[in-house]
Amino acid sequence: MSHQLRREQLEHIGAVIVVGSGKGGVGKSTVSVNLAVSLARQGARVGLLDGDAYGPSIPMMVGVRKRADAKAEVILPLAERKDLAVEKKIPPLQRYGIKIMSVGFFIGEEQAVAPIADALGMLIRQLLYSVNWGELDYLIIDLPPGTSEPQATLCREIALTGAIVVTTPQEIARVDTAKAVTMFQRAHVPVLGVVQNMDGFVCPHCGQTAAIFPESHERRQQLDELPLLGRIPLDPAAVTNGDKGYPIVVSLVDSPVAVAFEHVAAQVVQQIAARNAQASEQQPTTLPDKEEGHYERED
Ligand SMILES: Nc1ncnc2c1ncn2[C@@H]1O[C@H](COP(=O)(O)OP(=O)(O)OP(=O)(O)O)[C@@H](O)[C@H]1O
Ligand SMILES: [Mg+2]
């Protein structure tokens, strides 16, 4: 527990949740956007930070498209700015009831950011501290695939409330997602649970569910022991709506995918509440006898 306590607690933010997977293309950004919007629809104050600087998907998924000369090199202006006055901070974009920030808001959608060693760790700090997030109940961070940066900086420096891992049913995705679980567990970041995405296809004609990807029956302890936060079916409408900037929980509220995302959001709220209750139970309820009633808490 002590390693958690040394990490930076983000001011005015109730819970910081990272959404990751060892695997690319499994739906991390889709889950992040729809989870953030679902939580906001339940009345929470929510921020969404795109942690993927080299392949930011959040702008398109929330309807922000920026054209620019794709060949022009983009070098990120990096600077450590922890103590910025509120009026100097960057205002996040407000859409669908959430506050959003992404490197993709500043560059053309086909432009590539120049690779710089160690840039991603510094960049994520900059986005956390230089954006005027205000008071939030939840900040959702959409991670790039893999287990390097900015994952390492976040796990090492920031007091993360928990991680959600996203996988698809195939064994090859589950293997990589298990790696991400191991990374979080080694860093003592609580893993809140797994979202199994693209889990079956609901036929729009007959309503029956068909498996698109063969389900793996191989046990993977790291994944199987975690709470299953939800299974999201595959629906082409999720892509068309996502590409047009309409999260499916807004555009097709009664669709099986939207209902599944609402369920995931409710599970996440429940997991965090259970962990908070457990943490407060572990706090001493009576003060130990000490001279003159002075008691210094050691947390
Ligand atoms: N349940 C779903 N049904 C249909 N399409 C989906 C579903 N979930 C995600 N997709 C689509 O799959 C593609 C990849 O999704 P997404 O960008 O969310 O994955 P990712 O894990 O964030 O990818 P990356 O690793 O590149 O960051 C997108 O086109 C998205 O619209
Ligand atoms: Mg993504």
TrEMBL record:
GO molecular function, one term: 4 iron, 4 sulfur cluster binding
Pfam family, one: ParA
An example Gene Ontology biological process: iron-sulfur cluster assembly
Compositional bias (Basic and acidic residues): 288-299
Region of interest (Disordered), residue spans: 276-299
Keywords recorded for this protein, A-Z: ATP-binding, Hydrolase, Iron, Iron-sulfur, Metal-binding, Nucleotide-binding
Protein family (similarity comment): Belongs to the Mrp/NBP35 ATP-binding proteins family.
PANTHER family assigned: IRON-SULFUR PROTEIN NUBPL (PTHR42961:SF2)
Role description: Binds and transfers iron-sulfur (Fe-S) clusters to target apoproteins. Can hydrolyze ATP.
Subunit structure: Homodimer.
UniProt name for this protein: Iron-sulfur cluster carrier protein
